[in-house]
């Protein structure tokens, strides 16, 4: 299940403020392009009419606020950064939906499915630019603007995280067409994608005036938890929670042959027969549901799920060690760690 | 023909330096993602091996240098901005190739055609991020770094231009599916896309320390010439220069029913029979070459080409008026105007 609530360390008042800030920022531009963004973010229907759709996962933005608040930073200063990271995350989702041909996300038709791939690519590009414009525009409004150097640091961190994610995406897509993918390769890609939570934690620290050393440790904390989450997303696609069916996005990932740590483990450690069979399955252009069932059957034999879960636990230890270096109070540490666990466990 | 030479006001030494700066920046990251970018930019083949491909149009970056040099600004300071604008332009091309399903650009297979749409979307996103990273990274290296406020101004200008272009793209794509598109609507979209040359001229001014008023006038100059160029691109697709065939990109625009100012003029001013016939043609999902011939035949009857050329001349006057407000020397004014003419006339 995706997490649509309030992370520990924040109040529902704060998350409401965050949702309002996000919505006001997107609504501040009154053109059809932004209606498409509002649709994706769950506020309007395809005709641009207000719609109370199911709440969405906002953990990327919430982590920014969470970290800033652990430092006693002002939420007003952190809000534009939270909006920026949340939009960065959503630009990636809009493009992922085109790349994996997902017809639905959060039980609603995706942008590409409703408006076509050309509009979806364009909407994603727009959200990408909006992510940074939010930092410029909102910081201008506030009375207590951070200094230009820290704005610049935040923007640079956003762009570098985006590049790391693109570097990972390149590999991820390449691995779709390869059978021989190693555990190390999969973990490296998950680390690339983990930089999104890394930059979230980092921006919380920048907004709250943390030291360079603390910001570095926060980045490591966020990256490690983001890496764990990315590995876990694939496990959840393979083994949905009891009583739930796979979502469209989960099916999209499996059938387009995205490789998970569990699959890489079976490819590396399976018997020659197992490996040959996996190779045959992944030679198909697109997998069908029975192929996916056969893959999960094979992974049970190779104990690849247990191996993968151990790797995720290891990354959570890495996140905890990094967080301990930040030097927060015990209670702030605890609350950020519980937040991290919720993020990693949710889809 | 696309313009691959050196704009008036620059020397071939400077454009060589620019090409080197662009290449060094992309090459500074040694990962497969960047090889795909290098391929798109014409330096390597699909296997990442050096290839001396035909030179490409670099007028976006050159205009930055041109303006900076007219102000007597240091080329070193302007170079990262030139790299940024050139990359911004190229990120848009990579995504346009997916959106219009162009198989070839500059006589070479496009990224999406060679690596698939998922990789092309990702490569474009990466180039988009690189555009701004160049400003951060290269300015750090230089001795004479501009102040953080002007870096911030440049970055904000880049993001706002990108958003304007996305706003225009939204409409441009919508108009593909509509027959009733007005001249004003087409000119408005061309203005949106013109903001790319607007930001090029603006960044040249920022790099050279121009005043706020001058930067505003430079932006108007660049936007007007960019608007004229965008209108002209469509005319050139309709009526290729004597003795040349339509390129793949030109065919892609016409067959995907992108509307030009000439078509909008005929739709607004044609006889009822003409309008009905245009409506029938644009009801097709994709046009074939005989449809395109019929459209150009109709446009000859309605004198839509002459009308469009007059509009372009009007925009060039607008560019000239804006440039006169900058207060440069006569010779610098002349050389920027000749550069503008070359940009508008090339494809």
Could you describe the 3D structure shown?
Chain A starts with 11 loop residues before the first helix and ends with a helix. Chain A contains 15 helices and 2 strands. The first copy, chain A, has a two-stranded antiparallel sheet. Chain A has a single domain (12-345), classed as Farnesyl Diphosphate Synthase (Orthogonal Bundle). Helices cover 73% and strands 1% of the residues of chain A. In chain A, a hairpin with a 2-residue loop joins strand 1 and strand 2 (108-109). Chain A is an all-alpha fold and 347 residues long. The interface between A and B is large, with 43 and 42 residues.
List keywords for this structure.
homodimer; Farnesyl Diphosphate Synthase; 347 residues; 73% helix; 2 strands; two-stranded antiparallel ribbon; mainly alpha
Strand content of chain A: under 5%
Query: What composes the largest sheet of chain A?
Result: 2 strands, antiparallel
Q: Label the CATH architecture of chain A.
A: Orthogonal Bundle
Shape of chain A: globular
Taken in chain order, the helices and strands of chain A follow as: HHHHEEHHHHHHHHHHH
Count of DSSP H/I helices of chain A: 15
CATH topology of chain A: Farnesyl Diphosphate Synthase
Based on helices, strands and strand pairing, what is the structural class of chain A?
Answer: mainly alpha
- Estimate percent helicity of chain A: over 70%
Oligomerization: homodimer
- Span between termini of chain A: 6 Å
